[in-house]
Amino acid sequence: MLPNNTLSTTVQYSNFIGARNSTTSNILDYETGGINVFDSSQGIQVQSWRGRLIGDDIILDVPNNINITPYLAYSGTNISEFSFTFNQNMNPIVVFVQSGSSKMYWYDSSLGGYTVTDYGNTVTNPRVSLDDKRLEQTSNSDVIFAYIREGSLYYRQQRDRFTIERLLRNNCSYLKKIGMGTNNRFLFQGTFT
């Protein structure tokens, strides 16, 4: 949750917490998560999950745990970049660019299942992260979907079913990564002028 739906008035430098601090690319992402997909019984800070674009498939796995079966999070042609996270119930949420259009594959509780929302070709660098994974913050935490559109940084949140777009900052050309920092602040890493 971003207080007052705005960025801090002063830059708060910090490293990312957990798996988010790993080196990523447009086709490789890392996130801290629970014991298994759809299993939050041990919390959501159990192990480091990796997401990879392999051919047409976005695969989630735990590199150092052979007991976790790789999970096919999404499959589709012409995917050029993606980001993933888990919600509080360990449901995977994936944002990706497919044939130039930014999309989100997410669990919509009002539908009782997964859906794809298309945000169009003016949205670039889609990134997603659960903002606060601490157990004591369960009621306040939210999945944040951030992106660049027409040179500005925007975000949407799960509590609004990702329907309300909020402007965070103008003069942004690239968004690389988002997530919680070691200073317990939500961070946005990219190119900002």
First-to-last CA distance:
24 Å
How many domains, as an integer? 1
Q: Can you count the helices?
A: 0
Instruction: Quickly give the structural class.
Output: mainly beta
In the sheet with the most strands, the strands line up as: 1-2-3-4
Largest sheet: 4 strands, antiparallel
How confident is the prediction overall: mean pLDDT?
92
Radius of gyration: 15 Å
The H-and-E topology, N to C, reads as EEEEEEEEEEEEEE
**Percentage of residues assigned to helices:** under 10%
Strand content: over 45%
Low-confidence segments: none
Q: How many strands?
A: 14
- Overall 3D form: globular
What does it look like?
Helix content is 0%, strand content 50%. The chain has 193 residues and is mainly beta. The chain has one domain (3-192). The radius of gyration is 15 Å and the shape is globular. It starts with 27 loop residues before the first strand and ends with a strand. The mean pLDDT is 92.
